Structure formats: C-alpha cells, structure tokens
Amino acid sequence: MEVGRSFEEARSAEETLMSVPKMENAKCRATMEASEKGQMMTELEGNKQKCKKEGNHTRKTVNAFVHNDVMYKRYYIKEIEEVTNRFTSNIKVGQGGYGPVTHTLSHPCCH
C-alpha cells in the first residue's frame, strides 16, 4: 500500500509541476493584455486632451472674430481703377489666385 501511495503522490506532484508553466503562461498573457489596455487608455486620454486644447483654440479664434470691432473699408471698382490706372500692366507685381497683384505709390482711398 505504501508503494501505491508513493506512486499517487509522485503522480500528483508531476501533474502539479506540469500545470505550473500553463499557469505562468496564463499570468503572462493576462499581464500583456493589461499592459496593452493601459497603453490604449493613455493614448485615448492624450487624444482627448488634444481635442480639448484644439477646441479651446477654435473657440478663442471664433470669439476674436465675433467680438472684433474693426471696420473694413469697402472699395468700389472706380476707386480701384483710378489707383491702378485702369489695371495698367507696368504696375503689376505678380499674379494671385484671384487675379493680378499691383503696386501703387499713391492710394487716395486710404487718405
């Protein structure tokens, strides 16, 4: 009987030893998953802060435009033709997306 008991104990010890790597592997997998979740949470929090900061910047920009009391002068085509000498090419300095860019020394619209 004692041999049978020793055999059972040895078998039980062997099973225990065989299950240790599986348990360690499961612990390692759980740790890796927790780490990945933590990284994702950190990334999401960073994105949240970035959006909040960009939202504040946008809000400030809109408020600056809404509360701006600067009045802009409206120029009429006759004033522009007079200052540019009817869009003469000798005062053209370049070409913009909306048309020619000219230079004038005398600007009666602003005086």
UniProtKB/TrEMBL annotation:
Its EC number is 2.3.2.27
Basic and acidic residues composition-biased segments: 45-54
Q: Does the keyword Repeat apply?
A: no
Reaction(s) catalysed by this chain's protein: S-ubiquitinyl-[E2 ubiquitin-conjugating enzyme]-L-cysteine + [acceptor protein]-L-lysine = [E2 ubiquitin-conjugating enzyme]-L-cysteine + N(6)-ubiquitinyl-[acceptor protein]-L-lysine
Q: Give the matching InterPro entries.
A: U-box_ubiquitin_ligases
The UniProt GO MF terms for this protein read: ubiquitin protein ligase activity
Give the EC class as a word.
Answer: transferase
Segments carrying the region annotation (Disordered) are: 34-54
Keyword annotations for this protein? Ubl conjugation pathway
The name under which this protein is listed is RING-type E3 ubiquitin transferase
Organism equals Brassica oleracea var. oleracea
